[in-house]
Amino acid sequence: MEIDTPPSSSIDQQESSSSTTPKPNTENDKSPLPVCILVLGMAGSGKTTFIQRINAYLHSLHRPPYIVNFDPAVHELPYPCNVDIRDTVNYKQVMKQYNLGPNGAIITSLNLFSTTFDQLLTILNKNEQKHEHFIFDTPGQIEVFTWSASGTIITESLGATYPTVVVYIMDTPRSSNPITFMSNMLYAVSILYKYRLPFIIVLNKTDIIHHRFAIEWMNDFELFQQAIEQQHTYSSDLTRSLSLVLDEFYQNLRCVGFSSITGDGCKEFFDAVTDAKQEYDQVYKVEYDKWQKRREKRDKQKQEQDLKRLKDDLRDDGDHLIGHKNLNDIEDDTDDENDDESEKEDNEEKDDKQFEQYMKKVKH
């Protein structure tokens, strides 16, 4: 497939501009790494407007973030974007060439983009001394980060390189329905336990309805049960059962009320990000380093075992290597050939004698 890649794509521009940037000094090398904020959420939950608001908030503090857009189907972005997937992958061309619908084309576009994710990491590395936050906008197709390969590549690559926080945006007015609230929580818990990165739930659109009810439902199981009792359907019965399972999930969950219109909750959100970064350093990074050491140890042991097996194969019966024949076997083969020739000569002499005797009898 031919991916539409303009000559002046954002990745190429970033690489060319970054190549002239002088290397940071030793003091800068000791500065903390920027925090990656990966913004996820259902379609229409307000991810893009949320990023617009926190971008404006950080600019007001003179701490501009570095923003990456992963949504190939968005028409316009209300914020300046440093790296844009639309400059690398043509969403409409993917949909046309692969005969895909809108959702399938978005997932395929992200899969194609993830094959060049190492280039994005290189760009981020060159800009990590200039920014405190890397913010990533994602499409509303949440399945990208629940089962698609591209979501795993993006999340694990960022988590292995930088302090990474997953931010799940919830539509607070729609989540006032207990069943919709439980559906959102199931998505959130599936993403949390899939990647095990520090997690923040942002209850967006609090300018329409306050998020107090959601906090109470998380903290008080009986209040949530009372809200469900008004409905008697299969989905409500299932929601009632699932609420017992998710009770432990709520205990250590960071929840922040936020309004992308008024800007309420910006400070509380970045306080939660700071707390999540500490969790990354103390829990996730420690566990990841242990896992990396165990993996390196397993790879080293496997390499040593393979090398030992090869040496044993070379040592044992070394004369029977492919293309080489034992000299004793060659001598035995020669003796067998000589015996066969002698036996053949004896048989010929015997036949000659029998023929001569037969001829004498005929003459007489």
TrEMBL record:
Small GTPase required for proper nuclear import of RNA polymerase II (RNAPII). May act at an RNAP assembly step prior to nuclear import. Belongs to the GPN-loop GTPase family. Residues 1-29, 295-364 are annotated as: Disordered. SUPFAM superfamilies: P-loop containing nucleoside triphosphate hydrolases. It comes from Didymodactylos carnosus. Residues 329-349 have a biased composition (Acidic residues). Binds to RNA polymerase II. One of its GO terms (cellular component) is nucleus. This is GPN-loop GTPase. Residues 8-19 have a biased composition (Low complexity). Residues 298-328, 350-364 have a biased composition (Basic and acidic residues). Transmembrane segments: none annotated. Its EC number is 3.6.5.-. GO terms for molecular function: GTP binding; GTPase activity. The keyword Nucleus does not apply. PANTHER family: GPN-LOOP GTPASE 1, XPA-BINDING PROTEIN 1-RELATED. It is found in: Cytoplasm; Nucleus. It holds the Pfam family ATP_bind_1. The keyword Aminoacyl-tRNA synthetase does not apply. Keywords: Cytoplasm, GTP-binding, Hydrolase, Nucleotide-binding, Phosphoprotein.
